[in-house]
Write a structure and sequence with these properties.
This is Methylthioribose-1-phosphate isomerase. By secondary structure, the protein is of the alpha/beta class. The chain contains 11 helices and 16 strands. About 2% of the residues have low confidence.
């Protein structure tokens, strides 16, 4: 099934906080329920958040019409609430704006058309994710040993994923020898989610402690590092799950390609560089407690950023649905604007990273 979808007038999504122990599907019938699901990471991942934002606007419009309320006002309130839940992932605001701006109260089927556009985003994201995999798999060599961080798979999108879409297609082509996933503390998205997806794919895999990943890269056991992204600035700087930056440093130091996989919607041309990307700070309890039991002394404080920024100088390639962008060789702004305008662009993305 799709990770997130529209069904029977509600938003259906897998509760990622319950994996891998249980596969629980949520049916979200209000914008407030969706906002809570996003804040609590029941639904997460940049592309999935983009779709969730669009579906949330559709849900707000539907409920307002059913209750005889002002649809435009309901849409604006929903947009404000949803956009406040996760500040770093640009896809969320992109998805919200895309559907919000399509609402025209003068049209007789305005709400129906808005819902149709939001549902079309779901199918579009699924197609884009698969294309990222097909484009990115061309960068893999035979028997590639891949390292990935956090979860950039189907759970982070509608289906397939970004980084894991490359693994999926590479596996189908017989190119992937195995995948090492970081555990990704403190919420263990690698151990809980990525390993769950890799097992379902039938891909050989293992988990490494986060602090062991750099040494593993240095040992020669990794051929390529592939991650997703939560926001890519106009200059190519990449915000992704905290811990990505040191992996990029280790990769550069050891001559290992560092590849970022993301849809065009993750590239934010309004953000000039990584310094301008807001970094979400998560609750201290995620670091100071385990399953509700405190593990650090009282009065100990925590630094718990959800993301860090990897400078473009460390990025070998950015894989999108329309091709591979080479930092330093391609003008990211020109290529993205061209691709968005023509649904395709001539990128210098042939060959290996």
């Amino acid at each position: 099934m799709r990770t997130i979808d529209w069904a029977d007038g509600k938003i259906r999504t897998i509760d990622q906080t319950r994996l891998p122990e249980e596969e629980v599907v949520l049916s979200l019938g209000t914008v407030e329920e969706l906002a809570e699901a996003i804040s609590s990471l029941r639904v997460r991942g940049a592309p999935a958040l983009g779709v969730a934002g669009g579906l949330g606007i559709a849900l707000a419009a539907q409920l307002a019409r059913e209750n005889g309320e002002d649809v435009g006002g309901a849409i604006r309130r929903a947009a404000t609430l949803l956009a406040s839940t996760r500040p770093t992932a640009v896809n969320l605001k992109w998805g919200i704006a895309r559907i919000e701006e399509s609402y025209d109260p003068a049209r007789p089927r305005a709400v129906e058309e808005l819902i149709e556009r939001a549902r079309a985003m779901v199918a579009e994201d699924e197609k884009i994710n698969r294309l990222i995999g097909e484009v990115g798999a061309d960068l893999l060599s035979q028997d590639s040993r891949v390292l990935t961080h956090c979860n950039a798979g189907a759970l982070a999108c509608v289906a397939h994923g970004t980084a894991l879409s490359i693994v999926e297609v590479g596996h189908e082509r017989g190119l992937v020898a195995g995948v090492t996933a970081t555990e990704t503390r403190p919420l263990l998205q690698g151990s809980r989610l990525t390993a769950w997806e890799l097992k379902r794919m039938g891909v050989e895999h293992r988990i490494t402690i986060d602090s062991g990943a750099a040494g593993l890269i240095a040992s020669g056991e990794i051929d390529v590092v592939i991650t997703g992204a939560d926001r890519i600035a106009a200059n190519g700087d990449v915000a992704n799950k905290v811990g990505t930056y040191p992996l990029a440093l280790a990769a550069r130091a050891n001559g290992v390609p560092f590849v970022v996989a993301a849809p065009l919607s993750t590239i934010d041309l309004d953000t000039p560089d990584g310094d301008a990307i807001p970094i979400e700070q998560r609750a201290a309890s995620e670091v100071l407690e385990v399953r509700g039991a405190r593990i650090a002394p009282e009065e100990t404080e925590a630094y718990n950023p959800a993301f860090d920024v990897t400078p473009v100088s460390l990025v070998s390639a950015i894989v999108t649905e329309v091709g591979v962008v080479r930092p330093g060789a391609d003008d990211l702004r020109v290529l993205v604007e061209t691709a968005r305008g023509t649904a395709g662009a001539a990128l210098s993305g042939d060959g290996k990273p």
